Amino acid sequence: MLSNAEFVRDRIRTVPDWPKPGVMFRDITPVLQEPRSFRVLVDIFVHRYMNQGLDLIAGIDARGFIVGSVLAYELNLGFVPVRKRGKLPYTTVAEEYQLEYGSAAVEMHTDAVQAGQKVLVIDDLIATGGTMVAAIKLLQRLGATVTEAASIIDLVYLKGSDAVRATGTPVYSVCTYEAEA
């Protein structure tokens, strides 16, 4: 019998050569499309984070919004979006991070969290860790305590989870991939 994590992993689709040749894209769409696997995925997170004293869930644009908002609802917590630059209408604070060629930034509203609030940050995957680290830095700049960084997938071979841990933030991922293939 499969564990819940194995059940979810079996439904993650690998798309070769997308978005460019040589990349094996891990697609969570099938997990979300199937009601049972989506429920199992959410339940994995709910069971991990219930009764942990969290105040908020921060979801990273865009797929972190999907699981993060459902998890916040299930745990009776607030949800905070961490958006790509230029997407939020109110006063924001931004954090830049490096991409393979250039840089990008994520933003939050300046009043998104209160000092001392315990926040879980979540995204669909951790690759190089740039987006997750930027989100953690934003939350910390606003005074939040980031209790953990969570993801559905950790591409361990890209060492992003190591970069996240280097911030002092623990990492939890439902599924890990040790190699590209």
From TrEMBL:
GO biological process, one term: purine ribonucleoside salvage
Pathway field: Purine metabolism; AMP biosynthesis via salvage pathway; AMP from adenine: step 1/1
Keywords: Cytoplasm, Glycosyltransferase, Purine salvage, Transferase
Enzyme class: transferase
Pfam family, one: Pribosyltran
Subcellular location: Cytoplasm
GO CC terms, sorted: cytoplasm
UniProt GO molecular function: adenine binding; adenine phosphoribosyltransferase activity; AMP binding
Domain annotation Phosphoribosyltransferase: ranges: 43-154
InterPro entries per UniProt: Ade_phspho_trans, PRTase-like, PRTase_dom, UPRTase/APRTase
Catalytic activity: AMP + diphosphate = 5-phospho-alpha-D-ribose 1-diphosphate + adenine
Protein origin, superkingdom: Bacteria
Enzyme Commission no: 2.4.2.7
Family: Belongs to the purine/pyrimidine phosphoribosyltransferase family.
Subunit relationships: Homodimer.
Function: Catalyzes a salvage reaction resulting in the formation of AMP, that is energically less costly than de novo synthesis.
Protein name as annotated: Adenine phosphoribosyltransferase
UniProt gene name: apt
